[in-house]
Amino acid sequence: MYHPDFLVHTKAHHLEGRGRLDQILAVLQASGHLARLPLLTPKPATLDEIATVHARDYIHSLLEACQRGISYLDADTYLVPESYDVGLLAVGGALTGLRAIMDSSLEKAFALCRPPGHHAEHDAAMGFCLFNNVAIAARVAQAKYGLQRIAIIDWDAHHGNGTQNAFYGDPGVLFISLHHSPAYPGTGHLDEVGRGLGKGYNINIPLPSGCHDSDYALFLNRVIIPVLDAYQPELIIISAGQDAYYGDPIGGMRLTWQGYDYMTRALAEAAKRHAQGRMLLCLEGGYHLSGAAQAVNYIIAALLGDAEKPPLEIAAVPPNSESLKILTRINILHSKYWPLASDATP
């Protein structure tokens, strides 16, 4: 899912600029994926759809800020005059993918939408994000399609604070985040497990610097997949940020293309077991332009599941010792909610 207007929201020399999408499109063109795959064209989201997550006063203030020519909402998050309209279109991209999945036109969809969304709060933009594309898609999936169990997996290198807060008390949305910690935005601690009826349905996996494929595989196999198998989601949504790639200037991680392939295939298998294969991916971060673009290319290849392209092998490197400690703490915190092992053996 793509629209050329996603390139209009851009600012020279800013990390989150149009070059991210230009590079992704070039790589997908060279690999043949653009010619091979159906291309969905989005329509802008409606105000009612945006308001399933965001305050109407905030929505109006964002429109007004664009009309007034305000350049920055905070130190990180910029605006151009067209940003409000592009933001509506980015949400519309996620919703276009959702509709195609829910009406059975497609099993999986990847929304290459900009600006990203997972940091956007109920009443505030932050971290390059204006509207929370993934959270709105989940709310519409609940309201329009009656889904009762949606899983959001956020593998962006930064914690999806806005998504967490949108569903912190809602057992109808399981939110799991793998992210660098301590790092921006300073949220996503282990003990943030949800509240009220949503207790246990928020799982944070805060990773130390330098984690690589084997660390991600450890948490995928020992936490995420067992929880998904117990939850049995009707839809899996992925906040697909590629800033955990090892060359990213702000990610702090060492994930390779093999790691993205591994995660994608494992989550696609979980979707096949529980969600009729239904999986929606939405672009989030990723600022090593060529590396992030190739990661998207490998993710799409993994989603296609080509028989002639077997799964890539991840390097046989032991997990970070700090990762094992974190796994133990996650097991202690969440074994009361989910069937997790009590030890941290890889």
Task: Count the beta strands.
Answer: 6
What structural category characterises the helix and strand content? alpha/beta
Query: How are helices and strands ordered from N to C?
Result: HHHHHEHEHEEHEHEHH
The percent of residues in helical segments reads 40-55%
| Estimated share of beta-strand residues | 5-15%
Number of helical regions: 11
User: Strand order within the widest sheet?
Assistant: 1-6-5-2-3-4
The major beta sheet can be summarized as: 6 strands, parallel
How would you describe the oligomerization state of the chains in this entry?
A: single chain
Principal-axis shape? globular
Average residue pLDDT? 95
End-to-end Cα distance? 37 Å
C-alpha Rg (nearest Å): 19 Å
Low-confidence stretches: none
Overview of this structure, please?
- This protein has helices at residues 19-31, 33-36, 47-50, 56-68, 83-102, 133-145, 161-166, 213-231, 257-274, 289-304, 321-334; strands at 108-111, 150-154, 173-180, 202-207, 235-240, 279-283.
- The protein has 346 residues and is an alpha/beta fold.
- It has a 6-stranded parallel beta sheet with strand order 1-6-5-2-3-4, sandwiched between helices.
- The protein is globular.
